[in-house]
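To fix ideas, we reproduce below a protein record of this kind.
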Amino acid sequence: MKALVRCGLLTAGTLLACATATAAVPVFSASCPTGITVDADRTGTVRINGKKASLKKLNDNAYDAKSGSVTVSIGVEAGGELSVMYTGKHGANGICQVTASQAGGSGASAARPSASERAGQGQFDARGQIPCARARSPAPGNCR
């Protein structure tokens, strides 16, 4: 719908061409340094650390998603391979690891639900002994 608004008032044929020229961001999940997670679903919604991000289409193969102080750049390379990079607070930046993707950005089902979807269902990615701080304890303990 946003694409139609951006295209303005056009004839029916031109409007259709404008709407179809707007490609959706690919379906994927990625993890970045400093604990940043990025997920894009079949509707084109991108979430950074579980929060909906604003999405800017740079061209048919490049997008920028922004949530808070984090910007994630998404690129679709020749052959459909994804490149995902982030920039955070104070210029922190790095390359993200794509953990799941679906070629073409559409289809019947994604390879695996996103990290934020799994967390919403009570399925967490952390396993085993996890160091954590305990109340009034100077040394971290282990959480389960």
